[in-house]
Amino acid sequence: MNSDRGNKPAGDNRSDATLVDSACDRFERAWRSGQKPRIRDFLTGVPEQLQGRLFQELLCSELELRSERGDTIDPTQYLAEFSGRSDQVEAAFRQIAANARTQDHQQATENSDATPSSWTSQSAEGQQCGSYRLIHEIARGGMGVVFKAYDKKLQRTVALKMILDRNLASTEAIQRFYAEAEMAAGLDHPGIVPVFDVGSHDDHHFYVMGYVEGPTLAQDVKDRTYSPQESARLIIELAQAVHYAHQHDVVHRDLKPGNVLLCKDGQARITDFGLAKRTNRPSSLTMAGQILGTPGYMSPEQAAGAVDQTEPAVDIYALGAILYHLLTGHPPFESTLDALVQILQQDPIPPRVLNRQIPRDLDVICMKCLSRDPSQRYASARELAEDLQRYLDGELIAGRPPSIRQRILRWARHRPRLASVLAIISAVYAYHLICYWMENPGSQGFFHWLASGTLLVVGAYAWLYQSLLLRSNTTVRILFAWAATDIIVFTWFLLAAADGVQSPLVVLYLCMVAGSALSFDRHMVWLVTIASVVAYSIVVMASPWAHPLLPAPSFVETAPITISLLAIGMIQYFVLRCMRHPVVKREVVGSADPSRQTD
Hints:
Blueprint (H helix, E strand, L loop, with lengths): L13 H19 L6 H5 L4 H22 L5 H7 L4 H25 L17 E2 L2 E9 L3 E8 L4 E8 L7 H15 L9 E7 L2 E7 L6 H7 L4 H20 L2 E2 L8 E3 L5 E3 L6 E2 L12 E2 L7 H4 L9 H16 L10 H7 L5 H4 L5 H10 L11 H13 L10 H11 L1 H23 L6 H27 L3 H22 L10 H9 L6 H25 L8 H31 L2 E2 L10
Parallel strand pairs: 11-12
Antiparallel strand pairs: 1-2, 2-3, 3-4, 4-6, 5-6, 7-10, 8-9
């Protein structure tokens, strides 16, 4: 085995090194005995400071063992399974590729053969790939690499894209690579990077495309702020190119700022058709359940793995996501695997909510593109471009603002916690008013005004916390503070104004535990559950002191509430766990493949 275990950092002590080596030895023995051990199982119980090093060692060992056995290795599977360790996964594949190159070079030297099996970015400079001379590397991903090259036949600079390493590329990856070249070569539009040639050299598959000497839109948007007018003009260019592709039965399916190149003259060009699909013919390269695209820019139907439903409407959604990024400085949802759950269940926050300076018409156009229902989006990219041009010309846009009902539903979907709090407050206050007027109002004046004031305070700080959530990156801390405030205020109200543990309002503890799942965070569920159990226990113990005239609660009366709180918390926890695992385990295709050219 080729391993780096001997290169220990100076700060590691002997016991740490022994622990890592022992785990690696057990892992290798399990593999060689015919078992299929899981890397995650060997990380369990290991101190956090050692997990990174151990993960790297185990992954390299597994890749080498699978390579020895002749297995087909697909990097995207590892990137999807270990999404939080993508840098280490890529580093492991580079190390395995380097080992393979070394072995091939040694074998070639022994057999007096001259050409190496693959190139590093340093050794590639000056190498010949057919009639193209490689100048230097300009982009790299999990499966592909793009070089700036010189075409000796036609005397021009081009971009040459090849599969990163032939030994690690699966048959499906090679087929997808050639399908990408075929589809891009059939599109002749100034807004699409052209493809000139395709072939192979020394078993390295490659295709040649036009060289764009400029940054990607992803890089440019980091360095400058786009005005609403500039954003509209750029999306018009992209929409016209996308409409041309759709007319030729090609759906891109991975539009994002990283796949848009900016020429020196300002012209935007779309590249990377690695996930594109021809709508006029079936494809065997994708299967139901695969997630195609990049989290943060993919449509809900893509996030659901509905490959058969990825029609032109997915590109309309992606154009709206790019427009959203230009207007707000970030995509509608963060580009992480956790964003898949949000895409499936939530609407993006309208740009005008984040920035009131954004024109209302542009906000309407953007949100129409980002409709969860594909039929509610623009029917074609041309219609999107025409509506954006109407906005620039100061004319009435074709898109219409949503109705009051749609606004309320959309408002509630991207503010689910605030919406649930207001709904609970309304129900509780309605119940309170009914009880108040059914009994003698004069005898409950103090309680009535105290209850009204408390609910008003709850609504006020709920609105404040929701506003902070929309404008802050510390989402988890704000949610924790919000939940803690709810429990403290409600516990105080039960003891100070209500009948303590005898009050029927104690069922709100159950509502708070059930509502904690709206955060889609399992830690939040446990926090609210434990805090609610503790708060309810305080109410049970303090009720005889706060309300001496009421009978003391018995164990038979209070135990069911406590058990129900714990049961609901456990159910919510496992529901969230079951929701997340299928998403994370699906294959996310495309986000690791390089599509951009930068000089």
